[in-house]
Design a protein that fits this description.
Largest sheet: 5 strands, parallel
Number of domains: 7
CATH superfamily of the largest domain: Winged helix-like DNA-binding domain superfamily/Winged helix DNA-binding domain
Number of helices: 44
CATH architecture of the largest domain: Orthogonal Bundle
Strand content: 5-15%
Structural class: mainly alpha
Length: 921
């Protein structure tokens, strides 16, 4: 109410309705939680002549407030209502309490406390009281009282500042206050006194005479006794008017030798926390090397000028005994050794920066003593772990954000991690600059080091002798490379290994052992994964590692920073358990992959979460596959490859699929089913990558194996894939024969999923031949089977093909509907290959909608999408693109069309997909 009437619920302002409803809330609040009768509320809202339905309207307003604030907030008591709120929830109450407390502090000779509290009070003032209900009776009665309290607060603040010797600083504010309130004598007295104390005696007397003139001429009254006595004291230069010595704010903060790069959001967030009345302890947590100390210093330098006694930095890195904490604080405050620290700081208003508290563990009682004994002291602590003290607000300091590999040069050079590397590299190698040639390597270094500021700074120091590309190549052994930090840093920060040794040494033995074993996990993982691999209930030590900032929790998944993982792997190898834990890890994730593959085969609602699970586990699956290849464990390798084959195809990871499956085919037993499956998979990927002859040879070899093994199901899959090769070769008759042969086998074996895929391919061939009617028949039959099977990805592909067929038949609305559903499924499954096709189809939609420039861009986007997944655009798709582009060149011109195609090829994939979605609506 110190301004408009407003309510904040869960951090956001809520709507309170019209003026009468807002006025009702104001009246209830002004009664401080007491019951207010309906009769009184009617008078307060409508005055002496309320309307006939005032009571009914009042009940409507009460109902509206209950909806806005929560029913429990507005209570009914007999014939009245009361509003339920906590003492600190109402700004007006807090304002009055702070003003009254400040008046007492001034009277008791504590002007510093008074000034601080008055600053907090005036920060609550939002302008004219009850401004948004100013024409309501409530405001006409209450606003003058609130305004008077505001003026009293301004007077008291000026008294406090004058008592602190800030007479020069208050004069501009007093000039404005006297101009706004010319008849308020207290402001006049303060103005005269401030001028006199500033050595401006003549101006002080002139100000007195101006006050006398205004009061006599305009109000017809003489100045009050206090103002008249002040004039006489000035004329006799009374010693009691002498200005007190202004206290010098002491800020004992070190100035870092290098500038802080980035951290704007973090600085603002921590500053905001420390400025809140109820926050007295903020702890910056995070692993070693994240820059907690630098962030704390930046915040302290910003906050110090706002506190009467500034800020003090206390380095506790060498303190391991709790009894030494307060003596170290005393030393930082430059207090005599014999002084009682708590007594010395009891009345101080300052920020204590307590740096490096982690080695104290649970022995942080001295910090609690400071908070309890010095109510105006705030503590900003840095520690790997939270202190677990009452009222603590933890702020986990994240690593710097790292850039994506796809970012432009401008985006890369604007990234904070990259800028930090460049800044530190220029310090040791003045000629260093970010260029098109080296920025990708710098970005890769920052990603490999997880955005850890200390690690990035140590890497940048190597530019004395190594180019960024050479540093990137050597980061496989980051702990050996990242040495020789600045000699003025603490020893634990001079190498990355020393930093990690410091953190590792503070762990309990069980936590050290667990950290080493968790290093076998790559990327992120779930607690149940770790318990299966490690073979124990590890929830408690995992929680301890999270609290110690060595393990990060992202939703329900955990992760180690890569540098910490490398360090932990060394520890695991030293213990001799590395091979066994890696074996158990690989076997577990083989089971995860095979269960996901079973869900994909089941189709329906199980398919999407199975693909998402494989997304989450890719790094662990890569690690498992690497172990199987190194060991070698051929069975695990081939099963891992087989379980992920469809995933790689849907996600457009064609190069990865071809590489893994070719290696599996080489190491498996010749002529075995496993070799046949690997060859068939490799052939499928190679055909789509454009290596048609190689892929065809692999498929023929796989077909021969499966025929020898009398495996009709797998043989028919190879036959169908060879049909794809025939289509690419332009031999459509052979393709039809092959697909027809495979359909007969699939139908006999009851494999309706593969039968539907082959039918969908026959539809595509018919469409290519211009036989849209036959294409529609095959397509509809394929979709019917796929819907019955719950085959989401197959349905999506068939719908895309059918959409093109509907275009050919002139059924644009039906085409749009088919493409819309296909696009929806493709996005759900993140089916990159399908989405590339659909961008081409969307281009045709744009052309038909008379949007030629968008059509050209979408053709370029389709080409770029195929490039991104490493797939050669099939000839039939090239033909489709050309059919769309031909009329565009006539409309836009060949040069403009080509330019737009290139723009689309380089455009963001997600933006292009959003455009395609809009076109299918």
């Amino acid at each position: 109410m110190l301004g408009p009437v407003q309510a904040i619920v869960d951090g956001r302002s809520v709507g309170l309705g019209g003026p009468k409803q807002r006025a009702l809330l104001a009246e209830l609040l002004l009664h401080g939680g007491a019951v207010v009768t309906r009769e009184h509320l009617v008078d307060a809202l409508w005055g002496e002549t309320p309307p006939g339905k005032a009571t009914s309207s009042l009940q409507v307003y009460v109902h509206g407030l209950r909806r806005a604030l929560g029913a429990e907030r507005i209570e009914t008591h007999g014939n009245g209502y009361r509003v339920q709120f906590e003492p600190d929830e109402l700004d007006a109450d807090r304002f009055e309490r702070l003003v009254d407390g400040s008046a007492r502090a001034l009277a008791e000779g504590r002007p510093g406390e008074a000034e601080e509290d008055l600053a907090r009070a005036l920060a609550l003032w939002g302008g004219t009281p009850l401004a948004d209900v100013a024409d309501q009776p409530v405001a006409q009665l209450a606003a003058p009282r609130l305004e008077e309290i505001h003026l009293r607060a301004l007077e008291l603040r000026t008294d406090a500042r004058l008592a602190l010797g800030a007479h020069d600083a208050v004069l501009p504010d007093l000039d404005a206050l006297v101009a706004e309130h010319p008849y308020r004598e207290r402001f006049r007295e303060q103005q005269v006194l401030a001028l006199y104390r500033s050595g401006r005696q003549k101006e002080a007397l002139d100000a007195y005479r101006d006050a006398r003139r205004v009061l006599v001429d305009e109000l017809g009254v003489d100045p009050g006794p206090a103002l008249q006595e002040l004039e006489r004291a000035i004329l006799r230069q009374d010693a009691s008017l002498a200005a007190p010595v202004q206290a010098v704010r002491q800020t004992m903060l070190p100035l870092p030798a290098t500038s802080l790069v980035g951290r704007r959001l973090e600085i603002a967030a921590v500053e905001a926390m420390l400025r809140r009345d109820e926050v007295r302890l903020v702890t910056l947590t995070g692993p070693g090397g994240t820059g907690k100390t630098r962030l704390a210093l930046a915040v302290a330098h910003a906050i110090a000028p706002e506190l009467r006694d500034g800020a003090v930095f206390v380095d506790l890195s060498s303190v391991t005994e709790p009894d030494l904490v307060l003596p170290t604080v005393a030393q930082a405050l430059e207090l005599p050794a014999a002084d009682d620290v708590l007594l010395a700081i009891r009345d101080r208003s300052l920020l204590l920066v307590l740096d490096n508290l982690e080695q104290l563990g649970a022995a942080v009682q001295p910090v609690a003593d400071v908070l309890a004994g010095a109510p105006r002291v705030r503590v900003l602590a840095t520690s790997r772990t939270p202190l677990r003290l009452s009222g603590e607000h933890e702020y986990p300091v994240p690593p710097l954000p790292t850039p994506a590999a796809t970012h432009s040069f401008e985006a890369l050079t604007g990234n904070d991690a990259v800028r930090l590397f460049a800044t530190r590299a220029q310090a040791v190698s003045p000629g260093f600059a970010l260029t098109e040639e080296n920025v990708e390597s710098v970005a890769a270094i920052c990603r490999r080091l997880d955005g850890l500021p200390l690690a990035i700074e140590l890497a940048a120091a190597r530019t004395r002798a190594l180019a960024p590309a050479a540093i990137e190549q050597r980061l496989g052994q980051a702990l050996a490379l990242l040495v020789e930090g600045a000699r003025d840093l603490p020893p634990r920060q001079q190498t990355l290994r020393a930093t990690l040794d410091w953190s590792y040494g503070l762990l309990a033995e069980r936590e050290r052992a667990l950290l080493a074993r968790l290093a076998v996990f790559a990327g992120t993982w779930r607690l149940e994964d770790a318990e299966t691999v490690i073979g124990a209930d590890i929830a408690l030590p995992v929680a301890a590692l999270v609290e110690n900032s060595l393990l990060r929790l992202r939703g329900e998944r955990f992760a180690l920073l890569e540098t910490i993982r490398e360090y932990a792997l060394e520890k695991l190898a030293a213990e001799g358990d590395l091979d066994e834990i890696r074996r158990r890890h690989a076997k577990h994730f083989l089971d995860v992959a095979e269960r996901a593959w079973a869900d994909i085969l089941e189709g329906g609602e199980a398919e999407e979460p199975a693909l998402a699970l494989l997304d989450d586990e890719q790094e662990n699956l890569h690690a498992a596959l690497a172990w199987a290849v190194e060991t070698p464990d051929v069975d695990t390798e081939t099963r891992l490859a087989g379980a992920q084959r469809w995933y790689w195809l849907v996600r457009g990871r064609l190069n990865e699929g071809a590489r893994v499956l070719e290696h599996a085919a080489e190491v498996t037993e010749p002529g075995s089913a496993a070799q046949g499956a690997a060859l068939a998979g490799a052939g499928t990927f190679n055909v789509r990558r454009g290596e048609r002859r190689k892929g065809a040879e692999q498929l023929e070899a796989a077909l021969a194996i499966f025929r020898d093994l009398d495996d009709e199901g797998e043989a028919s899959r190879c036959i169908a894939e060879l049909g794809h090769v025939a289509v690419d070769d332009g031999d459509l008759d052979r393709a039809v024969d092959l697909y027809t042969e495979s359909i007969a086998i699939f139908e006999r074996l009851g494999n309706r999923t593969r039968q539907a895929v082959a039918l969908s391919n026959l539809a595509a061939i018919a469409a290519r031949r211009g036989d849209a009617a036959t294409a529609a028949v095959h397509g509809e039959r394929a979709i019917e089977l796929q819907r019955a099977n719950g085959d989401l990805d197959g349905t999506a592909v068939s719908l895309a093909n059918l959409g093109r067929v509907r275009f050919a038949l002139g059924e644009d609305d039906a085409a749009r509907a088919a493409l819309r559903e296909s696009l929806m499924l493709g996005i759900r499954l993140d089916y990159r290959m399908l989405l590339a096709y659909l961008l081409g189809a969307a281009a045709e939609l744009a052309r038909r909608a008379a949007q030629p420039e968008q059509a050209a861009r979408l053709i370029g986007g389709a080409a770029g999408a195929f490039e991104a997944i490493g797939m050669q655009i099939p000839q039939e798709e090239i033909d489709e693109h050309e059919r769309t582009l031909e009329p565009l060149r006539e409309t836009l011109g060949a040069e403009r069309t080509a330019e737009l195609v290139e723009v689309g090829r380089l455009a963001a994939f997600d933006e292009l997909i959003a455009e395609a979605q809009e076109l299918t609506r």
